[in-house]
Design a protein that fits this description.
Blueprint (H helix, E strand, L loop, with lengths): L2 E6 L4 E4 L5 H10 L7 E4 L5 H13 L2 E5 L4 E5 L22 H8 L1 E5 L13 H9 L3 E5 L2 E5 L8 E3 L5 H12 L4 E5 L5 H12 L4 E2 L5 E5 L7 E4 L4 H14 L2 E5 L7 H8 L5 E4 L2 E5 L16 E5 L10 H10 L2 E7 L9 H4 L5 E6 L2 E6 L7 E3 L4 H12 L3 E6 L4 H4 L3 H8 L2 E5 L1
Parallel strand pairs: 2-14, 3-13, 9-10, 17-18, 21-22
Antiparallel strand pairs: 1-22, 1-23, 3-5, 4-5, 6-8, 7-8, 10-12, 11-12, 14-16, 15-16, 18-20, 19-20
GO molecular function: UDP-N-acetylglucosamine 1-carboxyvinyltransferase activity
Protein name: UDP-N-acetylglucosamine 1-carboxyvinyltransferase
Main location: cytoplasm
Length: 430
């Protein structure tokens, strides 16, 4: 068990350089298996899943140099021997995005039947299986393994997703690059990290049309170029630090070179009376003394924060706004339209003295503004839920303990050091 001890009550102030988005870094790393050309990646965070991918590439026979201090990751897959066998890491969901590259390179990939991730609810692999089959792969079972195989380069195809799934979209795009001709995906996910993966692939020589929209066309690519690519800042982390300013009454500026992604996120902060300013590559939130839920013009309608696939508010950010709802005076309804297990943790907030009501598996109401007290709470294996608990603890005078807080390390390698620099007294204990 990893515990995080937080002594709160201070207004957080300062400037932060955020890390890259793990949801961009992981698919990019997986997609590098398509290429034999040398690849240099910069601003790569030292997180658990990158460590697992580094080990997998090394075991496979790739030449990999990871300078953690410089945040550089140099890859050369041309050294993978013919006949290499690949059983993908079971402990991370991103494993499934290595399958297109392994099928193209080795003709086979094996995946344990139960792919782990976080505890947000059912996350099926059937849409991915449908993608691989559409590009000509055969899928079978051998004991506890799912075996994907193909004997030749597939042909381009067209697919209409039932749901705008991020990883399914990414797997389709990567698979399409290994096929003959042009492929098209309809109802594609268009999150910033999906767009960033496409930007990286374009730098390698891919031809992708419709990036950032719900309809994307991809030409098959037979040869990839060397590339030197730097990841942009994680919009999740930028929003999280601004939320920390809001919940503690502080003043925090965060490096942000893509403020165009923040229009709806900014409006959501405004619902709690907090204003975000973007200027000269930085985003700043200077919080009011008291967060207050803003009333709708239609006064009998409860203020809502609705999370769904981009361009809605991302479901991954909903917990940080729930933390604001707990602190802000007034009522807010939070609606998670993505995960059926995304709100069950709300009972832990009652240990801080918060008043919440779960309407059903997807909707939660906070009745904010009550006096909160320090507490010991337990985080589920969900990254930003652990952070939301930390946010609430940071806003309360006294010491709180967050048990099982390790999910924070999955996405934010320097998160605790950063908030310590802003004025939170915080420490890990393993």
């Amino acid at each position: 068990m990893t515990a995080l001890y937080v002594r709160g009550g201070q207004k957080l102030k300062g400037k932060i350089e955020p890390s890259a988005n793990k949801n961009a870094v992981l698919p990019v790393l997986c997609s590098t298996l398509l290429s034999d050309a040398p690849i240099m990646l910069r601003n790569v965070p030292e997180i658990t899943d990158v460590t697992r991918i580094h080990a997998f590439f090394s075991d496979l026979g790739s030449t990999v140099e990871w300078d953690k201090d410089a945040k550089t990751f140099r890859i050369d897959h041309s050294t993978i021997p013919s006949g290499a066998k690949a059983k993908l890491p079971q402990a991370m969901r991103a494993s499934i995005m290595m399958i297109p590259g392994l099928l193209s390179r080795l003709g086979e990939a094996r995946l344990e039947h139960e792919v782990k991730g976080c505890t947000l609810g059912a996350r099926e692999i059937d849409p991915h299986v449908a993608v691989f089959k559409a590009f000509g792969a055969e899928v079978s079972y051998e004991q506890k393994d799912i075996v994907f195989s193909n004997a030749r380069r597939g042909d381009g195809t067209r697919m209409w997703l039932e749901y705008a799934s991020v990883t399914t979209t990414e797997n389709f795009i990567i698979s399409a690059l290994t096929a003959n001709g042009t492929s098209q995906i309809v109802n594609a996910a268009c999150e910033p990290h999906v767009q960033e993966m496409c930007t990286f692939l374009e730098a390698m020589g891919a031809v992708i049309r419709g990036k950032g929209t719900s309809m994307v066309s991809i030409d098959g690519c037979k040869e990839f170029k060397p590339v030197d690519y730097t990841f942009v800042e994680d919009f999740h982390e930028i929003a999280t630090f601004m939320a920390l300013a809001a919940v503690t009454g502080g003043d925090i500026s965060v490096r942000n070179t893509r403020p165009e992604d923040f229009m709806l996120i900014d409006r959501t902060f405004e619902k709690f009376g907090a204003h975000v300013e973007h200027k000269d590559g930085w985003s700043r939130l200077d919080a009011p003394e008291q967060l207050v839920v803003q009333q709708n013009f239609t006064s009998h309608i409860t203020t809502k924060v609705e999370a769904a696939p981009w361009p809605y508010i991302p479901a991954d950010l909903l917990p940080i706004f729930i933390a604001l709802g707990v602190k802000a005076r007034g009522q807010t309804m939070f609606w998670n339209k993505v995960y059926e297990g995304g709100l069950t943790w709300h009972t832990e907030l009652s240990l801080f003295g918060a008043h919440t009501l779960l309407c059903d598996p997807h909707r939660l109401i906070t009745f904010g503004g009550d006096k909160l007290v320090p507490a010991t709470v337990t985080s589920p294996y969900i990254i930003r839920v652990a952070i939301a608990m930390l946010m609430v603890a940071a806003s309360i005078d006294g010491e709180s303990t967050i048990l099982d807080a390790d999910p924070i390390r999955r996405a934010h390698p320097n998160f605790v050091d950063n908030i310590d620099s802003l004025g939170v007294d915080v420490r890990w204990e393993d």
